[in-house]
Amino acid sequence: MPRQTVMDSEYRIILNVGGVRHETYKHTLKKIPATRLSRLTTSLANYDPVLNEYFFDRHPGVFAQILNYYRTGKLHYPLDVCGPLFEEELKYWGLDSNECEPCCWMTLSGTRDTQDVLKTLDELDIEVDQTEGPELYKRFGWEDDYHNDSLSAWQRLKPRIWRLFDEPNSSRYAQFIAAISVFFLITAIIVFCLKTHPGLRIPELQLFGNFSRNHRSISSRIQPAQINIDKQNSRPHPTFMYIETICNIWFTIEILARFASCPCRIEYLRAPVNIIDIVATLTFYIDLLSSMFGATADLEFFSIIRIMRLFKLTHHNSGLKILMHTFRASAKELMLLVFFLVLGVVVFASLVYYAERVESNVDNQFVSIPVGLWWAIVTMTTIGYGDITPHTYLGRLIGSVCALAGVLTIALPVPVIVSNFAMFYSHTQARSKMPKKRRGVLSIDQVAPHVKNAPFRNSNGPTPRKNMEHTPLVSNNHTPPHTLI
User: Fold this and answer.
1) CA 472, CA 345: separation in Å to the nearest integer?
2) What residues have CB less than 8 Å from 293, skipping those under 6 apart?
3) What does the pLDDT look like over 240-278, one tens digit per residue?
4) DSSP 8-class letter at 223
5) Contact (Cβ atoms closer than 8 angstroms) between residue 255 and residue 278
6) Might you name a Gene Ontology BP term for this protein (predicted)?
7) Cα–Cα distance measured from residue 308 to residue 322, given in angstroms and rounded to the nearest whole number
8) CB neighbour class for 129 (10 Å; exposed up to 12, middle 13-18, buried from 19)
9) Phi-psi domain of 478 (left: phi exceeds 0; alpha: psi -120 through 50; beta: other)
């Protein structure tokens, strides 16, 4: 019996992970080859011959699940650990996170979705960039000039102008400029709408009669002028043009200032909001020039582009940015909604067309299937204008089924869209409460030069510590490079 105990102890191994000791059999660690634990030898720097154990400065809670994976062949996700930390620990031990069990896969995929959301919020640039000094000038490619103290006057002024016009919450002056921009934006939109009101337009006057002196007789009396008011052809009040001119002068100054001070002009021109702003401003000047030559009737339709300036409000409101990205993130669900709507519209339009022709129906309004398409769209979207209605019993039955199918079709993807918006909004609110500056933590490469020459005491006495730097799992000489962390 003592001999069996000695033989059993020879096959056991002690692993000290983060101060927590784990004991298992050597053949257990051999179950998953090509991993860090399957290549343990006494020649590694992690091995302590005095305590007869291997020490790893890693997370002990995650390692408990990893060791259980070696024992049972099933990898479970610990609920008290963050997802990125769990995947980082698995990567260190040479394991794949995709081997996680189905019962824990939903939790692990949820953490990955959270990482994607945080990455997306970084790309949306919702938060105010409070970076100063080298980080600010690094965006413009002038980090070396900043450290060398060789910045020119324009290099010092350009980032300030950019933050004034592009980051409304960076300073009080930026907030003042943003307020002016929003004021002119709202004013331009109001003017664009009011100038179409019939009571605020000036009708065109047309004169009828021949007033040429060559065709008048000397003795004839001068006939009074005949004036006709053409209400169909009118023009906006000149005051609207003056107000629009002032607003577009500000928009022009804003465009030129942002274009001249932007870090990358190519990215500036690629932004959809900037493209809309430039095109809308150009259409005003084209309209202004065309009005001087009397060609406003042909080009007035293109002024509709100016209403697209409303998208500039997303630059000043983070909620609008989140809403726009929610629709972008829910593109698959929206396309699925459109697909089912088109399918239902075509099916019910065809059914109601033939249903109204089965029975005797004098007031049949469904003269063709395209007319039925309009009725099906209005019915499935639960609008119901009532301009076209079925009159037969079979047609009304199809109309009832069409309305119910429309309600179900539209209601199915709505929770997904609402969930995406709530997820983006909650993460944005949480990020806004986080501290802007955090204490820096040195990496292992920065700490290693201070400790690589420190003495290391083993059973043979103090010897210089070697192999202290973090090395990959597999090296070029095929030697397991497990080292202290």
Assistant:
1) 59
2) none
3) 889 999 999 999 999 999 998 888 888 888 888 888 889
4) P
5) yes
6) protein homooligomerization
7) 18
8) middle
9) left
